[in-house]
Structure formats: C-alpha cells, structure tokens
Amino acid sequence: MAVLTLVGHIPEDGDRAAVLALLDNTSVRDGVVSGETDEANLAELRRLGLVVHSAGVPGTAPEPPLAPPPRHPVAGSLAMPALTDRPKAEQPDYGETVVLRTVPVPPADWASRLADLGSTVLERVGDQRYVVLLPTGGTAAAAALDFVAEVRPYRPGDTADANNVVLPGGPMPGARPVSYEVLAHRAADLPAIRAWLAARGWPEDGAGRRKVRFRCPFGDPGLLELVDRQDVAAVDLHVPPAPLNDHAQRIAGLRPAVPELAGLTGAGQLVGVADTGVDERHPDLKNRLRTVVARGRPGDASDPHGHGTHVAATIAGDGSASGGEFRGAAPGAGVFFQSILDGRGRLGGLPVDLNDLLAEAYDAGVRIHNNSWGADAGSVYRMSSLEVDEFVHEHPDLLVVIAAGNDGRSVAPRHVPRGFVDLFSVNAPATAKNALTVGASRSSRALPDLTWRQWRPDAFPDAPIGDERLGGDAEAMAAFSSRGPCQEHDRIKPDLVAPGTCVVSARSSAAPDSTFWHGWDDNYAVLGGTSTAAPLVAGAAALLREWFTGLGHVPSAALLKATLVNGACWLRGADACADHPHAPNHHQGFGALDLTRTLPAFFTEGRSLRRLGQTARLTLRGVPPGPLRVCLAWTDPPGRGIQHALSLAVRRPDGQRVLGNERRRTTYATADTANNVQVVRIDDAAPGDYAVEVTAVSELLFGPQDFALAVTCGPVDEADDLWKAG
After folding, report:
1. Is 384 among the residues known to form the active site?
2. Average pLDDT taken over every residue of the chain
3. What per-residue confidence (pLDDT) applies to 253?
4. I want to staple 177 with a disulfide (CB 3.0 to 4.6 A). Which of 95, 215, 289, 387 is the partner?
5. Of 387 and 449, which is predicted with more confidence?
6. In the CATH hierarchy, which fold is given to the domain comprising 242-590?
7. CA angle 641, 347, 306 (to 5 degrees)
8. Plot region of 606 (φ>0 → left; ψ -120 to 50 → alpha; else → beta)
9. Fold match between 3-56 and 89-154?
10. pTM of the predicted protein model
11. What are the E-state strand segments in 59-176?
C-alpha cells in the first residue's frame, strides 16, 4: 500500500483523536487537517468521520497547464523551451506575476501576511496554488514565508501555447492577419496592453473589461513580446462562434404536466435569446416577443437562417399555428430577442465581451438567457467562458443556459472504447462554471430515420454508435452532443441533457430547406442539435422560476440550477454511460431533464460561508424510507477552475456520510473540490434523521460564498427553520 498525503476536515461528531492518531506529520487549523497515512487507513479514517478533500502519492500529480492549448492545425507540435521555461521580462512599474503554492493547511492569517508584502492574489488555479502579483523583486520575500511551499514565475508558457503564437521562420510575406485575443490579469492593466497593440500597428476588433481582440499575421514575432508582458494572463487564437444546430417535452416531463406545475406557463418571466434572428410574424411568436434587438444587421432582425426562430419557439412558442400541438416549454413567457446574425452569415452581432450581451438583456428584465451557439474549444475554459462567469457572479439572479456543442465524434477515440463517442469536446462559452450547460439526448421520434453512420460517416464510422439511429431511443445520447469534462480540474460538463434530435418547432418563412433536418409544413420544421436541447431547459427554467415566485421567493441562478439538476433522470443507454455508468459522468453530466421529479420538497439559499473549514448544517428529522436527493450549487468567482471550493455531505441515521458527487470517476472517495454542482442521490434511504452539510474546503479569498440547496424526499416530521418548504 502507498503512503498518501491527504487533506480533509473533521466534522463536529468526528473522532478527532482517533483520526489524528492515524496520521503522521500533521498540520491542523480548526477542523481542517493535513497529514500522511497508509492507503489502507482510508476506509477507517472515513468511518471515524474524516471527510477527505484530496489524497495522493506525493510528487506524482503533474502541475496542470495554465495556457490555452493549441488551436492552429498548421503549426503542428513544437517544443519551445524558451517559451515554456524562462521567466517573463521585467516590466517597469508593474511588479512580477508568480504561481505560488502554499502548504496544505496554511495559517489563518496567511493571505493578510502575503498582502503585507504588497501582493495581490489574482486567481486560484488548483489546490493550494494561486496566481499572485508581487512587487518587483518580491519573490524572495514571498518564498521566505513559512506557509509558502513553492513560488515560481508566471511564465510565457503559462500565457500561451507555442503552437498558437509561433511559426518557424515567421509568417509568409503577405500573410493575411488572423484574429487573436489577449486577456489582462486585471481590468486596470488593459489600457497599457491596448497602447502596446496600437504602437505595434495591430488593429483592434474590440475590447471588453479585461480582453482585447486584435489582428496580426499568425506567428508574428511580436506575439512573443506580447506573451512576455507581466500584465498579460493569456493570449489565444479567436475562433468565431456558430449556431449549434412537443415530442421532446413529453420525454422531459413537460407534458403531461406534473400536478404542481399545472397552470404554469412561464407567465411573468422574460427569457433572453441571442441567436440568428427571428420571424416576428410567425403565429407562434408574434404575441410572445417583447423586444427584438438587431445587433448583427442594423435595422434587420429577420431570420434568413431559421435557427433563431426554431430556438425561440422551443422556449416560448404558443402553438397558435398547430392548435397548441407544437407549443414551447413555457408558452406564456415573454422573449427578449437579440439578433446576432451579420450580413456575412456569421454571428458578428456578438460583442467582443459577452458581459455586454448579457447586460443588455439583464437591464431589460431578463433573468433566464439562452445561448444556442458556441465555438470549438476542446473543453477548455476560454475567455468567453470567463466573461459569462464574471457576469453571473455580479448578477447572481441571471441563469445563463448554453448549448454544450455538436462536436461529439467517435473517430479513433482516446478515452472510451472504439465505437463510442470520445470525451473533451465541449464548446465555449459552455465551459463556464456558472452557466447551465446542456447536452443532447435522443428524442423518441425518428425523423429522418437514419443511422448515425448514414448521417455522418466521417464522424461515426464504427459500431455500435454508427449502427444506432438518430432518434427512437430516449435513453440514449445524441452522438453529436459534445462531451466533457472541462480540461481544467476535470470539471463535469454538460450539467444536463435534454432531447436534441428530431425536434419540431417553428420555421422562419425566410429560411431555406437546407437549414433543417426535415420538413414538416409551412410553419414548422425538424431540427436537431444541442441548440434545440438548450431552449427546452431554458423554458423549463422559466416554469420553475414562475413556481418559485409563486411561493414568494425570487430564486437565484444557483437555486434554479440546483433544482433542475436534482430532478435529472439518469439515462441507461450504452452510449450515455459508456466508460462510467454512475452519476455524474462526462457524457450526460447529472442526467436528463425530468420535471416530473424536479420540484423540491425543501430548498434554501442566502446563507454564506466565510472561511476554510466552516460548515453549514441543516437537519431533516423523520425522513421516510425511499428516495432522497440533495443538490448543492453555487455561483463561483470567475477564474480558471473553482475559486471557492465547497463540499456537500449528507449524514445518514447511522452516522456515516455520503459525499457530493461521490460516484464520479476518481481514484479515492474524496470531497469534490472541482465542481460547483454536487449531488447526493440515495435511492433507498433508510428512515430517520438526516443532516445536510456544506463545508468550505478551500480558502474563500474573494469574499463570503453563498450557496443553494434543493432536496426531494417524502414528507418529513420536522425540518430546520432554515429550510423553505416546496
């Protein structure tokens, strides 16, 4: 058995003395402890009450890369030691950026002692790892602090991948410029970066809070100078986003409605939709559209593509042209539509900074915003993902729903068996932590009636997936649906899936037949994609928001997310489980939308944790036998990976704890420090008293951390006053 280094916390009812007796080289702060132990002791430590945050053999875990991975197919794989290994150049009057690692359990005053050196913690990039801005020459003083295990420069290789910025021999004469994006460490750093770009003669396409989009030839030597700036966090090639191309509602539990949802239509809710355009005269939408903004073609918000009309009606179409048969998920909701199709047929109406897109909708009253578009990202947290997280963190009552992407492929898979869809294909901004990311399952309708190989022989050449059909099996995934995880910290995405094949919805009168999978009639057409799954979830969110407000509670985005995830139905299709049959996995996330079991028996939000190791404990007494489900969600500060890690645990009547996301793919049964959505699902809970515990398992450096909980179970004898009854 190996000797492991572990970090964990001992709850109030844990046997502290017995836990510490099994650990060597311990460090303790309040209830948080680190130490070394034999791997054989893990089960006993857990029985004694220790909740393990992390466990591993020292020195075996590689440091995750910080730079965005290669995008450009021409450059190939280049070994560039000069880019990856050396420190950045000094930058007058700025300071030096470093990656600093603390000891596993630093003293409570470590952040203030670091600040006393004139430093600023910019971002958490892993367990006990931070990007820090120090005064020039401050590295030695930081390294001398007793709680600092390591400090190294934030290198050019942390800022960009060589394959994105270097071309052997430089660009060809007359090479056309390509689009890049540069991210500043802080908003205050952006003016100096923009001045540098202007002096270089590289034109801007726009700027946001911390980002500038600019153009220069691929591989221009000046890019290495940009990467070498201390104030630059990342440089990446820009990939333009594109659209992600009734019956489905029955699968998702929207028809027939559960009794508690009867009469709910989304009335009083305003849903934002940013998409190609909208047919304002379509019978299903003309009474649902509240505002239409033409962002891509001045004065023209029409839909010559057809995607936007189909999406908007999936959310809120009232079914007027079909006698109600093809109404949307929330036919009483209003729609604030942002047309982003430009005159070249691209999504040029999207602003450089997505904060601006969301602010326009939010200021109009939107509290649910659907985005059925994205850019290839290979499951990487891109700058657009950061912008979504920024906005939701500052506006925690806005739920942003994003399609996961249609880049699922089964060609030469690296992470799953042959004939199954491979991992790591989620688009951006769908990799945003604070978004609700939606993948696609299959509809029970089969139209067109083709196999995946017939539909896309280049993408799905092998059995079994190649021989399965586009529709007809509601327990299976759509083969094209992008799979997770996110490449930083193995974050779970998608969050949910919903039917995304063979979906009938409104057809724009200006759209060509080529947009659609199949015709239906003059008013409707068949389309598929995660872009048709996402609006189904956005419409379901509008119903839930109406339900919550009917109880006198205005829900946060985190509570809506927790409620939807808590009710998800686990799909049993072979491709939905593939390499990991337990929830959550990287194919279907936490499962498929199912409103028949979504409404919570109890919920709570608004409580805050303020320090590492602090626990909020809420009890449920006299829980009856049967299913018990709990979901924790929180809106995390923006940044790569989880900035404020919380853990969920449910204490059973026998005193043992079930951890949030305990059945995710992991080496040891530890608290989940990588996801801001966590579930406990006990299918056959024993009767008795249960406690739901939420603990801060990382430093909370960016302020108090709120969270939301949703619980489904049978009637209980008594619940803490902190719970609200559903």
Report:
1. no
2. 93
3. 56
4. 215
5. 387
6. Rossmann fold (3.40.50)
7. 115
8. left
9. yes
10. 0.95
11. 96-102, 120-126, 129-134, 148-153
Q: How confident is the model at residue 75 (pLDDT cuts 50, 70, 90)?
A: very low
Q: Give the domain ranges of the chain.
A: 3-56, 89-154, 242-590, 600-725
Q: What is the DSSP string of 674-704?
A: S-SEEEEEEEEEPSEEEEEEEEE-S--TTS-
- Structure confidence by residue, pLDDT tens digits, 548-564: 999 999 999 999 999 99
Give the integer Cα–Cα distance in Å for 35 and 524: 63
Exactly one of 189, 275, 575, 636 is catalytic; which is it?
A: 275
Q: How many CA atoms lie within 13 A of 170 on its CB side?
A: 6
* Alpha carbon distance 635, 509 (integer Å): 40
Which residues, including other chains, have CB under 8 Å from residue 140's CB and lie 6 or more apart?
Answer: none
In angstroms, the CA 566 to CA 496 distance is 10
Architecture of the domain defined by 89-154? 2-Layer Sandwich (3.30)
Residue with tokens 């530890």, as numbered in its chain: 670
Q: Check if 275 is active-site.
A: yes
What type of residue is 206? Answer: G
- 600-725 belongs to which CATH class? mainly beta
Q: How confident is the model at residue 247, as a pLDDT?
A: 43
The closest alpha carbon to 354, from 318, 390, 315, belongs to 390
User: What percentage of the chain exceeds 90 in pLDDT?
Assistant: 83
Query: Residue range 164-174: average pLDDT?
Result: 83
The CATH topology of domain 3-56 is: Alpha-Beta Plaits (3.30.70)
Cα dihedral angle (96, 101, 106, 112), rounded to 10 degrees? 10
pLDDT given at position 76: 44
pLDDT, tens only, 388-403: 999 999 999 999 999 9
Per-residue pLDDT band at 81 (split at 50, 70, 90): very low
Q: Is 616 helix (H, G, I), strand (E, B) or coil?
A: strand
User: Which pair of tokens denotes residue 605?
Assistant: 């939000």
Within 10 A of 37 (CB to CB), how many other CB atoms are there? 22
Active site includes 580?
Answer: no
Per-residue pLDDT at 283: 98
Tell me the pLDDT tens digit for each residue of 633-689. 999 999 999 999 999 999 999 999 999 999 998 878 899 999 999 999 999 999 999
Strands laid side by side in the 705-712 sheet: 677-685, 626-633, 705-712, 602-609, 724-725
Quick check: 526 and 400 in contact, CB under 8 A? no
> What is the Cα–Cα distance from 156 to 229, expressed in whole angstroms?
8
9, 238, 305, 307: the active-site residue: 307
Q: What is the pLDDT of residue 36?
A: 95
Query: What are the structure tokens assigned to 99, written together?
Result: 């990656």
For residue 241, give the DSSP letter: -
Nearest-angstrom CA–CA distance, 418 and 410: 7
| Element housing 178 (H / E) | strand 177-184
Q: Contact 466/452 with Cβ under 8 angstroms?
A: yes
Phi and psi based region of residue 274 (left: phi greater than 0; alpha: psi -120 to 50; beta: remaining): beta
Give the mean pLDDT of 395-413: 96
